[in-house]
Amino acid sequence: MKPSSEKPKSCRRRMAPEHLFRFDCSPGVSCFTQCCQDVTIVLTPYDLLRLKNRLGMGSDDFLERHTLVIPREKRVIPMVVLKMNETDKKCPFVTETGCAIYEDRPWACRMFPLNTEGDGTFELVSNAERCKGLEQETEWKIEEWLKEQGIVPFEEMNELLSTITIPMQIHEGEIENPQIAKMVFMCLYNTDKFREFVFKSSFLDRFEVEEPERIDLIRTDDLELLKFAMDWIKFGVFGEKLFWVKETARGTK
Ligand code: SF4
Ligand code: SF4
After folding, report:
1. Domain assignment present for 113
2. Could you give the dihedral angle defined by the CA atoms of residues 95, 96, 97 and 100, in that order, rounded to the nearest 10 degrees?
3. Residue 124 lies in domain
4. Which residue among 97, 121, 203, 209 is least crowded, i.e. fewest CB within 10 A of its CB?
5. How confident is the model at residue 251 (pLDDT cuts 50, 70, 90)?
């Protein structure tokens, strides 16, 4: 759960997916739920989608109530983190019996006590002194444990997100118009608003998409909508030919 860092990066041992480690986090361990407090959990766009749908909230409401949006110097995409309770600094979803939204918990919570740099290797980001789960008998192969955590769709969406974040770093210095940053944020983190933008503006009169059936899908399917929104960033910011201006819209604004 808690992506804490207790050793300098260079000292941490990298492990392959076949590596075995001992871990069991369950109500029996003395530290149970302690790592769901006073912790920085960075939310990916997919995390946010899963959470707001789990809670039956709109994107605006979820962003307002459960996140802190932290601007990053010279970066178009801000950091979005899960807001802890003001009083006790606990995660708003932790209960005595564990995580109340367990099936939809964010990527960082699924990964803990492991982390990856996205290079196929893993490292422990806690130790048995703090995370008693690491001294339990249950032994896991990392790759099997990750599957058990339901990490696959999160990893797929992280990979897709990297097709935005990596080229964005190259373009970052050129993007001065704050409207572009606002659009990028809406695409990634405010899918409800992006849906309104597609269906309640002149968007569909002006643009054609390669697979028009996607338009029907994104009316109701939030995941498809997020993927569509990522394509819109690739078109609008990186100039990828994923949309075309309709003949009838040429010359109009
Ligand atoms: S979302 Fe769940 S697992 Fe993650 S910190 Fe909150 S209670 Fe813990
Ligand atoms: S065993 Fe580790 S992951 Fe589980 S609650 Fe304790 S510190 Fe958190």
Report:
1. yes
2. 0
3. 9-152
4. 97
5. low
42 ligand 1 Cβ < 6 A: no
- Residue 111 CB less than 6 A away from ligand 1: no
> Quick check: CB of 33 below 6 Å from ligand 2?
yes
pLDDT in tens, 237-250: 999 999 999 887 77
Name the residue with the closest Cα to ligand 2, atom 8.
35
**What would the pLDDT profile of 48-94 be if each residue is shown by its tens digit?**
999 999 999 999 999 999 999 999 988 999 999 999 999 999 999 99
pLDDT at position 172, please? 82
Q: Are residues 87 and 136 in the same domain?
A: yes
The tens digit of pLDDT for each residue in 200-229 reads 999 999 999 988 899 999 999 999 999 999
CA quadruple 170, 171, 173, 174: dihedral, nearest 10: 150
Question: Considering its fold, how many domains does the chain have in total?
Answer: 2
Quote the ligand 1 centre to 100 CA distance (angstroms).
8
Please determine, for residue 1, whether its predicted confidence score (pLDDT) is greater than 60: no
Residues 6 or more apart in contact with residue 24 via CB below 8 angstroms: 133, 136, 137, 138
**Cα atoms in the 13 Å half-sphere on the side-chain side of 55:** 19
113 and 21 part of one domain = yes
Q: Tell how far the Cα of 178 is from the centroid of ligand 1, in angstroms.
A: 33
Q: Which of 41, 84, 96, 105 to probe ligand 1 with, by most ligand atoms within 8 A of CB?
A: 105
